[in-house]
Each structure stands twice: as structure tokens, then as C-alpha cells.
Write a structure and sequence with these properties.
Elements lengths: L1 H16 L4 H22 L3 H10 L8 H20 L6 H42 L13 H13 L1
Helix pairs in contact: 1-2, 1-6, 2-3, 2-5, 4-5, 5-6
């Protein structure tokens, strides 16, 4: 549930201001690490922790450390691309995918990135068609990415 609240808040900030405040990343990272810790304690067989884990259990609650590192690595790769491309990809996108990597692991985070890119591309193609038809000027329009991550995040957490 925490991941969805984070993705919704980040999507709203990205759409409205093209900026995500640092406190949101810090809060989401702390919550993600705590959630992952509770999932890990639940694996060790402590009864109370198992009950908490069953309550907050998500589709990615029992990932290995390597899968979590791979998920965080996707965000690190986006941060590297952001730095090399002079901000063509926002740093906030990389930070977001680092946090979702803690929650989702490598493969689900990769799916999150892939399907979010597809949604964003379809939206951009639609804007180009509208621009060709003369309805709107879209030549230099920049699209915020995180609003396209939220619906895919909802889909992946329900799946």
C-alpha cells in the first residue's frame, strides 16, 4: 500500500510541478526499507512478525536480496543515464525506480519501467497526432513520466 501512496504523490507532483520534493523520497525509502525488513523478519518464523507479514503481504514480499538489488539497479541505471544525457531523463525517475525496486524486485520493476514507457509513448504519439491535425502546438512539449508509472504500479501490485 505504501508504494501506491508514494507513486500517487510523486505522479501528482511530477504532473503539476515537474518536481518531486526530497522529503517524499526520504519517507518512501524509509517505509520501503521498514516494509522489506518486516517481510524478512516474517521469513524467520517469529509468530507476531508472521501475522504482520500476512497482513501487509504483497506479491513481492518474499524476494531474495539479489532480486531487490537488481530492482534498485534499474533506478541506478536511470540515474546514470540522466547524468550522461544532461537531464533528458529526470533524476526523480531514477530515484523513484530505486524505491520501487526495493518493493518490487528486479523483474516487476523492469515490467513497471517497460509498461510505463509504453503508456508514455502512446500518450506522446497521441499528442503528435493532435499536433499534426493543427489542434495544439506539441513540437517541444516535455512529458512528465511518473503519471504513467502510477497506473502500471497499481496493476503490478494487484497482480
Amino acid at each position: 500500500m505504501g508504494i501506491l501512496i508514494f507513486l500517487l504523490a510523486a505522479a501528482i507532483y511530477d504532473w503539476k510541478y515537474r518536481f518531486i520534493p526530497g522529503w517524499l523520497y526520504v519517507a518512501a525509502a524509509i517505509e520501503a526499507v521498514l516494509w522489506r525488513g518486516i517481510c524478512q523478519i516474517g521469513k524467520e518464523g517469529i509468530w507476531e512478525a508472521e501475522q504482520i507479514r500476512k497482513f501487509i503481504r504483497g506479491p513481492a514480499s518474499d524476494l531474495s536480496f539479489g532480486e531487490i538489488c537488481g530492482g534498485v539497479g534499474i533506478g541506478l541505471l536511470l540515474l546514470f543515464i540522466s547524468k550522461k544525457s544532461d537531464g533528458a531523463i529526470g533524476k526523480g525517475d531514477g530515484l523513484t525506480f530505486m524505491i520501487t525496486g526495493i518493493y518490487l524486485g528486479l523483474w516487476r520493476n523492469l515490467c513497471l519501467l517497460w509498461f510505463s514507457l509504453i503508456l508514455c509513448s502512446l500518450w506522446g504519439a497521441g499528442l503528435m497526432v493532435i499536433g499534426r491535425m493543427g489542434w495544439k502546438q506539441v513540437k517541444k512539449k516535455e512529458l512528465p513520466f511518473l503519471p504513467f508509472v502510477f497506473p502500471v504500479g497499481v496493476w503490478l501490485t494487484i497482480l
